[in-house]
Amino acid sequence: MSVTVRVPAKVNVQLAVGGARPDGFHDLANVFLAVGLYDEVTVEPADELTLTCTGPGSDQVPLDRTNLAARAAIALAERHGLGDPKVRIHIAKDIPVAGGMAGGSADAAGALVACDALWGTGASRAELLDICAELGSDVPFSLVGGAALGTGRGEKLQPLDVGGEFWWVFAAADGGLSTPAVYREFDRLSPEAPEPVAAPALLDALLTGDVERLAATVTNDLQPAALSLFPSLKETLDAGTAAGAVAALVSGSGPTTAFLAADEAAARGVADGLAASGTCRSVRVACSPAPGATVLSGN
Ligand SMILES: C[C@@](CO)(OP(=O)(O)O)[C@H](O)COP(=O)(O)OP(=O)(O)OC[C@H]1O[C@@H](n2ccc(N)nc2=O)[C@H](O)[C@@H]1O
Ligand SMILES: Nc1ncnc2c1ncn2[C@@H]1O[C@H](COP(=O)(O)OP(=O)(O)O)[C@@H](O)[C@H]1O
User: Fold this and answer.
1) Three-class SS of residue 119?
2) How many Å lie between the centroid of ligand 2 and the Cα of residue 243?
3) Active-site residue set
4) Is the ipTM of this complex over 0.90?
5) Which residues have C-beta atoms less than 6 Å from ligand 2?
6) Which ligand is closest in space to the CA of residue 220?
7) 141-152, pLDDT tens digit by residue?
8) Which protein residue has the closest C-alpha to ligand 1 atom 37?
9) Fold observed for domain 3-160
10) Is 96 annotated as a binding residue?
11) How far, in Å, from the CA of 9 to the mean position of ligand 2?
12) Which residue has its alpha carbon closest to ligand 2 atom 7?
C-alpha cells in the first residue's frame, strides 16, 4: 500500500510586509497563487521513518527529521497517538529548492495529506490546516492551492476567486537565498514599514482574469531586499522584460524570478529569451491557478 500526493508551487502576486513582530515574524498581506509546477510525495509503510528525494536540487534537501515532510508525518502521528511514524517518504522534486516557491512547504502539505490517507487518521480539514500552520507560514496555502489572501504571518487564509488562466515563466537562479536573511534585510531597508493591506485593484484583476491589470498591480515588498542580497537578479528581470514579459518580479523571498506573460505563446517566447540571455540557471513555463494537495493514487 502506498499513497502519492501532488502539491503545487506558488508565486506571491502581492507580498505586502509590515514591521517585525515581537515573535520575529512579520505581518503580511500575502496574495498567493498556486502554479502548475509540482512535487509528488509518496508514502508507504516501513520499519522506521525514512526519507528519499529525487529531482533537480534534491542534493540540497535534508533527508533527516528536519525535512518539512518528515516533520509533517511526525506531527500527525503525535496528534493521533501513533508514536514515531513508521513510514517511508519519497519526494519527487520539481519545484526549485530554496527558490521562494514554497517547495518545502508543498512537501509538508503533501506528506500530511498522504499520511492521513495511508493511516486512515481521518483528520478534518481544520486539523490539517492547524498542523500546516505549526509547520510553516506558507504550508496552509500549499494544502489549499488556487488563490488566497494570507494574513497574520501568511497562515490565515481567505480563498480568492480567479476568473481566468495566467501564464508564468520562472527563472531559477544559481544559488539560493535564506528567507530569514531576506526578511532581516527588509527590516534594515524599511524600518518604518506601514501596515500591510491587500490591493483591491489586484484582487479585482484576479477575479476578472485580467492579465494586463494583474501585470500593472503585482508587487513584492521583499524584492528590494532580495536584490540587495543578490544584485545579479536585476539582469534576469531585465532580460525577461526585454523578452516580452508584461510583469517581472522576484518570487517571494527569491532568488527565483517570476515573469507574467500575456498568454501561453508569449510565455514560450519569454522562456526562450531568458534561456538565451545567460542570466539564469534554468527556465520553466507554468499556468495558474493550480489545485492544492491532491491524492493521485493509493494502492
Ligand atoms: C517569503 C514567503 C512568502 O510567501 O515565502 P518564500 O518566498 O520564502 O517561499 C513566506 O513569507 C515565508 O514563509 P515560510 O518559508 O513558510 O516561513 P517560515 O518557515 O514560517 O519562517 C521562516 C522565517 O522567515 C521569517 N518570516 C516568515 C514569515 C513571516 N510572515 N515573517 C517572517 O519574518 C522569519 O524569520 C522566520 O523564522
Ligand atoms: N522537503 C523539503 N524540500 C526542500 N527544502 C526543504 C525541505 N525540507 C526542509 N527544507 C529546507 O528548507 C529550505 C528552504 O527550501 P524551500 O522550501 O524549497 O524554499 P523557499 O522557502 O524559498 O520556498 C531549504 O534550503 C532546505 O534546507
Assistant:
1) helix
2) 30
3) 10, 138
4) yes
5) 60-62, 67-69, 91, 97-105, 107, 179, 253
6) 1
7) 999 999 999 999
8) 180
9) Ribosomal Protein S5; domain 2 (3.30.230)
10) yes
11) 12
12) 104
Residue whose cell numbers read 489545485: 291
Side chain identity at residue 272, one-letter code: D
Q: Which parts of 20-102 fold into alpha helices (H)?
A: 68-79
pLDDT digits (tens, 9 = 90+) for 258-293: 999 999 999 999 999 999 999 999 999 999 999 999
Q: Which CATH number fits domain 166-288: 3.40.50.620, 3.90.1150.10, 3.30.70.890, 3.40.630.120?
A: 3.30.70.890
Q: How far is the CA of 245 from the centre of ligand 1 (A)?
A: 27
Residue 116 falls in which region: left (phi positive, over 0), alpha (psi -120 to 50) or beta: alpha
For 53-78, b/e burial (b = at least 16 CB within 10 A) is beeebeeebeeeeebbbbbbbbbbbe
Cis ω before 231 (30° cut-off from 0): no
Q: Which of 40, 72, 36, 71 is nearest to 53 (CA)?
A: 40
Residue 189, C-alpha cell as written in the block: 531597508
Q: What are the residue boundaries of the structural domains of the chain, listed by start?
A: 3-160, 166-288
Do the annotations mark residue 99 as ligand-binding?
yes
Q: Is 106 annotated as a binding residue?
A: yes
H-assigned helices in 160-263: 179-189, 200-208, 211-217, 223-229, 233-242
Under 8 Å between Cβ of 233 and 227: yes
pTM score of the predicted model = 0.96
**Ligand 1 atom closest to the CA of 103, numbered from 1:** 9
pLDDT in tens, 173-228: 998 899 999 999 999 999 999 999 999 999 999 999 999 999 999 999 999 999 99
The response to whether 100 counts as a known ligand-binding position is yes
